[in-house]
Amino acid sequence: MKKALTTAGFVIFSVMLPMKAMASNFSQFYVFGDSLSDTGNIFTATEGLTNPETAIPPNPPYAPGRFSNGDIWVDFVGDEIGLTPTTFLSPQTNIPADGVNFAFGGSSSGLDNALAPNLGLPGILGQVGLFTQNLQANNQQADPNALYAVWGGANDYVFGGVTDPNQTVTNLSNAIGALTQAGAKNIAVFNLPDLGQLPFALATNNSAPLTQLTNAHNAALEQALDSFDGNSLNIIPVDVNSLFNQIAPNPGEFGFTQNPAIPCVVGDFNNISSVCDNPNEFVFFDVVHPSSKSHRLVADVTLSAIKHETVPEPSTVLSTLAIGAVGTIGALKRKRRKN
Fold first, then answer.
1. Which residues contact 300 (CB under 8 A, 6 or more apart)?
2. Residue 267 parent element (H or E)
3. Rounded to whole angstroms, how far apart are CA atoms 114 and 123?
């Protein structure tokens, strides 16, 4: 996996390019996050371009490079604002004129990967560090007309064993601060849904502690965002937690026919025992990742937040949850290679 990050066929882009006129209000789109926002970085790093069925996540049943059955919120938002960010690990022929997606499945909130540590896969704070270091190396500032998205923290709690949200929120706050210091002005920041209601948490009887951590995380994150104040800075909170709290007790009102506690995919990446025929009738595609339909709804809410609109009611726009949790990468990949 580490070798894939330095293979000659891929480059680390110089991310700041001349701004171009767009139909939207944003000139570029940059994403920092984990598997919920990853559009192909881990897939590429685990040899997805040459062996898609054995990469992370495997294709099929996952869509290429996505931890879902189809497009994710990054794709949908990008379509709406006319920008398609290039993945961090991408063929040289792709020029990131629309921005870069730095998100990696498995990312922690900090410098490393929660599931595959010490392999050169950056956490969210590490992703922002790569971005700002590139700017400094090229004597540039971040594009003030770009949209930046920061979403993470769930891996710390679900897989990383973190029991105190202070460090996680500090990592996210530092990432946001680094972006603002580099010149970013429009930053969408997502809170966490109730991690205690994930199929993973329900199946492992870990709901209560994860719910408590979620609540503590979101309260601390809200307080941290309040500290970013300035007439020229536009922090855009995206309240995923409220969306989840709406959909969990009444999934039918949001267009889902299946119980949110039941995922479409049964089993892990190495041993998938069954896949449903109708994934978009499920809130979750697997035990931690939403279906593409859920991602579409998350994108709708994100766009509403960007446009400073109120959160829509279920009768007008189907709300949903989204999870900043990630695919099991390092351990599963090593296990697969042993089999």
1. 76, 312, 317, 318, 319
2. strand 265-268
3. 8
Sequence-separated (6 or more) residues with CB below 8 Å from residue 99: 15, 28, 29, 30, 31, 83, 85, 86, 146, 147
Which pTM does this prediction carry? 0.86
Q: Which residue has the tokens 């896949």?
A: 275
- 168, 158 contact by CB (below 8 A): no
**Angstrom distance (rounded) from CA 276 to CA 259:** 13
pLDDT tens by residue, 267-322? 999 899 999 999 999 999 999 999 999 999 899 899 999 997 333 344 333 333 33
Could you tell me if 74 and 85 are in contact, meaning their C-beta atoms sit under 8 angstroms apart? Answer: yes
Check if the beta carbon of residue 28 is closer than 8 Å to that of residue 99: yes
Task: Using the structure block, give the residue that is written with the tokens 């849904």.
Answer: 193
Phi and psi angles of residue 202, each rounded to the nearest 5 degrees, phi first:
-65, -40
